[in-house]
Every structure is written in C-alpha cells, then in structure tokens.
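step 4 of 6: structure.
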Amino acid sequence: MVARRTNLYLARRRFKQQHGCQPVRNRFHNQDPLLGLDAIWRTVQRAKAGKILDWVLWRARTYGPTFASRESMEPPTWLGGRESLVTADPENIKAVLATRARDYGHSATRHVAFAPLLGAGIFVSDGARWHESRALLRPSFAREQVADLASLERHMGLFLSLIPRGAGDDTVDLQMLFFRLTMDTATEFLFGSSVESLRALKDSGGGGLLSPSASDSAFAEAMNDAQADIIFRARLGMFYHLQSNKRGKAAIKFVHEYVDRFVDEALRQDAEKGTKSNGDEKYVFSHELVKATKDRKVIRDEIVNILLAGRDTTASLLTNLFFVLAKRPDVWRKLKQEVAELDGQLPTYEALKSLKYVRWCLNESLRIHPVVPMNDKVALVDTVLPRGGGPDGQAPLFVEKGSIVTWAVYALHRREDLYGADADEFRPERWETLRPGWEYLPFNGGPRICVGQQYALTEAAYVTIRLVQEFARIESRDPGPWVEGLGLTVCSRNGTKVGLYRESS
Ligand code: HEM
C-alpha cells in the first residue's frame, strides 16, 4: 500500500513536470474543508432563492476563470470530498470537450440519477456505447429539414387559438404554452403521433392560461414527474439512495410503457414494409431508428433520451427570449420590421435562414440565458488543463483522476473580457460582427455537440416569427427581473407573463 502510493506520487510528480503544471491559482475555501458538505446545503438554499447562477457568476468574477473547490456530490475518496475544478476558460473547456475528451466521462452522479429513466441512451453513455448511440442517431438528424414546418404550423395554430383575441387586456403565460407546444411537436416527430397537450388545454376551455393546473395529457405529466425524479437524485448526489420516490418510479414505468407501444408499432410497420419506401412519407424518428436497429430496448432508450434532450431545451429558450422581448419594445420593433419582409406568408426553410435579426435574438438569448448553464465531467485518468495554474493562472493545471471539472457556460457567456463591458445586456446587434468559437457554447462542443441544434433553432425561429407576425405589440406583465428556474435546463422561474396586442396602439 505504502509502496503503491509512493510510486503513484512519483509518477504524478513526473507527469506534472512533463506538462509544466503549476498549483491552481485560486481556491474557493469550503466551510467543511474535508468533505465540502456545505456545498450541498448551499446549493439547496440558493436553488430555493433562484440564485445559483448569480453565485456561479460571482465566483468566476471573484476567483478568476478557473479555480478549485471541494463541492462535488460524487462519492468521496479516502482523503475526503473530491476536488472540483470550476472553469469558464474557453481553452480549458475545449480540452475537456475536444482535445482531451477521451480523458473524461460522465460523473457517477449522472449515471445514478439518469439511468432509471434514460437506460443506456446517449445522455448516459460513454466510450464505445456512446459511439454506437451517436452513430445510430446521426443519420436521423442528417436531413437539414428535419423539423417539419407543416406539422409545426398545425400545432402553432392551436397555440395561437389559445391566446385571447381581446386587445391585450388578458395576461397570458407564454411559458406554459411553449412547454406544451414542444411536447406536442417532439412527440409527433418521435412517434408520428402527438400527445396533443395544447388540444387538451383547449378542450378544457382554455381556462388556467396563467396556471398549469388544467389537465395535461398523462404522458406529459409522467414525463414531468420522471424528470423531477432525475433532478432530485442528481441534487442528492452520493446520498441519492436515502430517498425513495414512488411517484417518480411510477412515472418512469408509465413513460417506458408508453414509448414501447410506439416502438412496437414502428417495428411492426418496418417488418411489413421491409426496405420499400415511396420516399414521400412523413418523417418519423422512431421509424428511422428501426431501420438502423431492431433492438427494442435500444430504440426505447434513445427515444426517451431525445425527448428529454429536445423538449424542455427549446421551450426554455423561447421562454427566456420572450421574457426579455416583452420588456424590450425596441427589439420587438426591429423584429417586426424584418419579419414584414415575409409579406404575411408562412416562413419557409429559406426564410428562416434569411431573417438575420431573428437569428441574432436567438443567439443572444442563448448567450445571456444559456439553457444548459453548467455541466461537468469526471477525469477518467490523470490529465491536464491548459490554463489555471501558477501566479497568473496561465500555466497548465494538473487534474487528478477522479476529479470533477465543471464548466460554467453561464459565466463564460458573460465574461466582459470576451463580450465587452455590456456582457450582461441583451443586445442582438452584437451578432453583426461576433463570430465566437469556444467562447460561446450553448450547444456544447466537440464530438458530443448537440445533435438537435438545427432542429431546435428551426423550431424556435419559426415560433418567434409566427408570434411576431400575429401580434403588433407585446407587454411584460412581470414587474420583476428574470429569475432563474433551474432544473435540467434553466428558464424563467416566474414564467413569461405577457399581454399580447393585435393592434399597435
Ligand atoms: C435550444 C435547444 C437546445 C439546446 C440549448 C441544447 C443543448 C445541448 C447541450 C448543452 C448538450 C450537451 C449535454 C450533455 O451531454 O451534457 C446537448 C446534447 C444533446 N442534445 Fe441538445 N439542445 C437543444 C435542443 C435539442 C433538441 C431539439 C434535440 C433533439 C431533438 C437535442 C438532442 C440532443 C442530444 C441527443 C444530445 C446528446 C449528444 C451526445 O451526447 O452526443 N437537443 N444539447
């Protein structure tokens, strides 16, 4: 034991020398210096107050772009809690996601928290299993026009019909409608048949536009409960087994059984048709997947993963964007001017690409409110980050096997040295000249970059344009600032309460 430790110590000393590593420049000192358990308490308290991201930003601005902290909820080592390195440095993030991606994997927390719902799907897997998932999914997203605009318009019609036709006197929570819309479009894309949660709301009389109490489709509810279960487990980290969430378990079972029905149907249709296809059928994701594999469990896992990946992300982007737009008549006016180029016609794929200001607004929303604001990986081997060591923080930094590297996209996107003194402001015009690389990472980077990026941006642009076409004016009915609602994604905690006017005055 002593000899093994001595050898390890000497090997690591050599490794550090070879790579020119120096001690981390800054360290955040925990109140509990051994296990860092105060981090769990602090996270719970800050989550309650909607202040986790403020804290993330404050620490990056106080301790510099890369610092060490003992705050991981991973199982401790024999020496105490695991060390985390927190970074908002593009070079370091590039190392974790691209140049040294093989040195990292998902943390034990992610496996434990996500696996009951997501099985061995793309979000939970690493190494060879991930390669298989990615290869399986990539062709299904390869078609540029993967988002179906005709289907989107049908759901959008329902969405718009739920907004009162008055003069903007009613207050509408667009957030609730966005979440239903993306659930409806995602299930149609995945299964070929939508859960129609907007229709359920309409059939219930459209009441409760300000509260999510109107009865939702059972699947959408089960998916929410299953997701809540994941978040709860992830927050408990190594203490996850102390909880028993019957509601979460039942929801996961329901989701799996529901998805299995569509998997079986896709397999049945595939067996009937064989490889024959007349080429003009509707694009259905589960049907594409069964062309690549007949393994029922693999197909189900991947579908549930895509649903989780695709639904809340796009809805959160729209929620955050419209929260800001409702408070920015100047930006709304510019959007209206640009969208007027369509002459009242429904947007086509070409139009979606050509409307630059719409794209700038989406980019800017994802910059100041990145929907996945933080992420982490665990070092699978001893490795190195290019920066963060030495007195000026410019020297390479040793990362011990088992350490967690957290990258704070929220802090990265608000770095004043990268985005200017107005980094905290929503200013779409900055995208006229901005061409960021690793400084801008709403969709992750490297080999694990989001596969649904084009799908998401197409859907978000379409919805934005349709709302701008439909309404002359939008007015915020929330006097407060944007407050974070942090789950697997981040969106406005208080919804997006607005008045929408069809006439301009
Ligand atoms: C605004 C919308 C979206 C944003 C901001 C976003 C962002 C991200 C981010 C940050 C990741 C990396 C997550 C991680 O593994 O830790 C990711 C991965 C992924 N996203 Fe998205 N996403 C969006 C929409 C979508 C949509 C609509 C789909 C599918 C329809 C999708 C499918 C995926 C998949 C499958 C992965 C896993 C990729 C892999 O590990 O190889 N995303 N996305």
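step 5 of 6: annotate
 - Residues 2-107+374-416 form one domain.
 - The longest helix spans residues 296-325.
step 6 of 6: archive
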